[in-house]
Amino acid sequence: MALSSPGPEAGTGSTPAVPGSGSIPGSGSVSCAPAAPRPTRGLLPLLLLGNSAMYALYVGVAGMLLALQVEAVDPAVKVANLGLVAGVSAIFATVFNPVAGALSDRSGRRNPWILAGGLLAVPVMLLLGSVHTVLLVTLVWCLGQAVMNVYRAALTSVVPDRVPLAARGKASAAVGLGLPIGSTIGALVGAAHSDDHRTGYPVFGALVAASAVVFTSFAREERMPARAPLPVRAQIAAFGSALGDHDFRWAFIGRALLVLGYFAVSGFQLYVLKDHTDLPAGLSAEEAVAVLMPVDSVAMAVSTVLGGWLSDRHDRRKLFVGASAALAAGALLVPALSSSWTAMLVFSVVNGLGFGCYMAVDTALVTMVLPAAEDAARDMGVLNIANAGPQIAAPFVASAVVSIGGCTPLFLVAAVLSVLGALAVRPIRSVR
Fold first, then answer.
1. What is the rounded distance in angstroms from the CA atom of residue 190 to the CA atom of residue 165?
2. Which domains does the chain have, with CATH numbers?
3. Treating both helix axes as pointing N-terminal to C-terminal, what angle do 134-156 and 43-57 enclose, rounded to 10 degrees?
4. Using CA of residue 148, residue 42, residue 157, residue 228, what is the dihedral sign?
5. Backbone dihedral region for residue 231 (phi beyond 0: left; psi -120 to 50: alpha; all else: beta)
6. CA pair distance 380, 278, nearest whole angstrom
7. What average pLDDT does range 43-52 have in this prediction?
């Protein structure tokens, strides 16, 4: 999955934020409509449902079932193989996401693409559970990324398409809550099927398919004018132009460093629990994930709401961004210094608090340092490279570090990256 950032509340809007992916998951398409219609009644619960199902699949499949499947193929090189599968699929997801968004843009519709992506998740998940080599797992998971990005790109475009600016904050909250809820569901369902990952895959496919059917049945839409995608040359020019701005450049660097550190660890959590952590008797690594994920999700949800509110109240974005990134770095030191189960529990709580607050406040900070208001959506799309790019690099970096020195150096490298991310906000001049 690829993590992406929400667009500014003023302006046209862009893809709302995510982790994971696998793929935490690139950015979706950008809506350029001058005004959004009144939202469909009940749209916000439907957005919560759709995003929760998506994140459940990404966490349960990419975070647990794939790791078990790769380990079953060849336990001796599981870390390197998982890094290969995760890294290649992340590249594919990042490239395919804007393609999928462009397809729904050109059609002027979102619901058919949401429904198609959701329904196709079922046969692809069935196929993924039936393969037995690393090469085939990689190829089929890339196909799964294609299907899920058709679903994701269309779903993330619903907010700027259908929600007025006055209700954009509530809609973003509904989308954002899909991450902790979906992560918890994904961890629990994945753990329940850890003994036979083949049966777990279709469960996640069915979950996404059901949410797509419910969403498209109740969230009616009107056809919008078809829009041509931004040419590649223009996208490259936009990237260079946005990074030429001093404050935006440092915000970009800080986000990239922290995301790299976060996903370097989260993508290998199951192996960390198996190979590094001293689990209590009777608690399997898969069951431990099912315990840690809800803990992390609750902490993240609390700090997202509280961090955003406090930063608004005190008008201090840099302080909260830097402090939360430093808190995430401190959390990473706990399991580096201790391999106990208690250390992992403390890590999950503190890391969830730090990362949740960081993403909430840093997104607000970024909207305040955009180079030009008229290019807000475009520049937020540039920022999504700081989300997607590190998620591509993270599996390769993590597998290399773990293969050389084990899990302890991985925590230390991630902590250093988080500290550098915290320091990167200091040179920003236009925001306190």
1. 37
2. 43-423 (1.20.1250.20)
3. 170
4. positive
5. beta
6. 42
7. 91
